[in-house]
Design brief:
This protein has about 130 residues and is mainly alpha-helical. The chain has five helices and two strands. The longest helix has 15 residues. It is globular and about 50 Å long.
Length: about 130
Amino acid sequence: MDQTRSFPLADVLSVTTDRLLSRRHMAGLYDLLGFMTGQDVYTHQLGTAADAAAPALMTQHPFLADLLPPDGSDPADLMAWLVNAEREHGENLAVTPLKDWKQRDPIEGACDAVGAEKVFVVPMDPR
């Protein structure tokens, strides 16, 4: 059986709309994408994780495909739109993890993102 966890609609919409709507700001994205991928997601991994998560979220909740904020909204209008969306669809959604996500090493990902010559791994004394 798949594990399911409830997330704020605003966090989910931050992934499906490419607009940061989470009231928890980036913490909402890290929390949702970390749950869906089953690993800690680092900043340089957010785009890849969101690209994988968005279609899965829309499959889990098909109404998300058509739930888009109006173009050119100022912050006040965007928040009003979000409140109306929460009234219509609920403040929280059940989310299941991605089935096909392959664990990614964050250091290797950083090397791929910026170039290995720019990433320095410093060994730490475990004490």
